[in-house]
Amino acid sequence: MARLQDLETTATFTGAVLRNERITAETSDEEVREIELEIDKNDFSYEIGQSVAVFVPGPHEFGNPQHMRLYTIAEDGKSPSGKTTVTLCVKRCFYIDEFSGERYPGKASNYLCDRQPGDAITIAGPYPTPFTPPEDETAPMLMVGLGTGIAPFRAFVKHIYGTRGGWKGKVRLFYGAKTGLEMLYMNDKKNDFAHYYDELTFKAFEAVSPRPAFEAPAAIDQAIEENATEVWDMMCHPDTHVYVAGHEQVAELLDQAGANIAGSKDKWERRKAELKAGGRWAELLY
After folding, report:
1. Residues 222 and 86 in one domain
2. Distance of alpha carbon 181 from alpha carbon 251, whole angstroms
3. Is residue 25 domain-shared with residue 118, that is, in the same domain?
4. Is residue 66 within 8 Å of residue 58, measured between CB atoms?
5. 238 with 274, same domain?
6. Which of 34, 108, 155, 262 could form a disulfide with 48 if both were Cys (CB 3.0 to 4.6 A apart)?
7. Total structural domains in the chain?
8. Dihedral sign from CA coordinates of 210, 212, 215, 220
9. Closest C-alpha among 152, 144, 170 to residue 254
10. Which range, 55-69, 213-227, 265-279, has the best average confidence (pLDDT)?
11. Using H for helix, E for strand and C for coil, what is the string for 159-211?
């Protein structure tokens, strides 16, 4: 995907909030919300998994009039009035200033999480997704996601088994979160991956942090290593496509697990380089 500064963002329009629903438990430290927007643009068309730019009105630091952030379209639909709707999966984020140690709210995530039904949000797009299925429907696909990185995979899986009518190749999804409460779209309330479990080619593996109270990373590397033989066989298949999404930490965890299942870091890096050179490795990290 292009860098933010390279995107065409002058053609903006509005999206009215229809629904802003928390999808993690109220008792959870992690707040993730599903926000549905009604698009006020008659010719707006897109594909699931593409992104839209959300603009946060300023002023902001350094005199910037607005702040922009990309969010993946997790689901589509129609409003009661017949207009196009898009649904975004948004985690309320905070960051710690490395110099002062102060905790600050993420601009875009907190702005979106605080919107109420009827509020108008300025957006632009859609923008292409790096996640497109291969033309050969027998090609194996390996997906690895962390945190809100589940949003593009949710859209991706629905596309290949819904819009495209199924997939003959093996599809494996490894998805991690801090605790079971944060298994977005896989928890009791939003378990809409469940109906894909009866697909012969699809299987999802959930991984949670072994020590959530101590900010330990999700055990996605452990889940991958527990399925080392299958994962490495898929990595070595000449037609496999690999997709990685979510917090940048997911790339580090995948590399750690990959080095172990490959037998060495060098062997893993060589295979990953081959996949990238062949256009069969795609990442969407934040």
Report:
1. no
2. 22
3. yes
4. yes
5. yes
6. 155
7. 2
8. positive
9. 144
10. 265-279
11. HHHHHCCCCCCCEEEEEEECCHHHCCCCCCCCCCCHHHCCCCCEEEEEEECCC
* Helix/strand/coil percentages in the chain, nearest 5: 30, 30, 40
The model's pTM: 0.67
Residues 17 and 70 in one domain: yes
Q: In this structure, are 172 and 118 located in the same domain?
A: no
Rounded Cα distance, 149 and 194, in Å? 18
User: What DSSP string describes 210-270?
Assistant: S-GGGTPPPTHHHHHHHTHHHHHHHHHSTT-EEEEEESTHHHHHHHHHHHHHHSSHHHHHH
- Residue where one domain finishes, among candidates 127, 159, 174: 127
Cis previous bond, 59, omega within 30: yes
The fraction of the chain above a pLDDT of 90, given in percent, is: 34
Among 127, 161, 184, the domain boundary falls at 127
User: Is residue 133 assigned to a domain?
Assistant: no
Q: Is the pLDDT of residue 212 over 90?
A: no
- Mean of the pLDDT values across residues 139-161? 80
Confidence of residue 66 (pLDDT cuts 50, 70, 90): confident
Q: Looking at residues 218-224, what average pLDDT do you find?
A: 78
Report the distance separating Cα 86 and Cα 37, nearest Å: 5
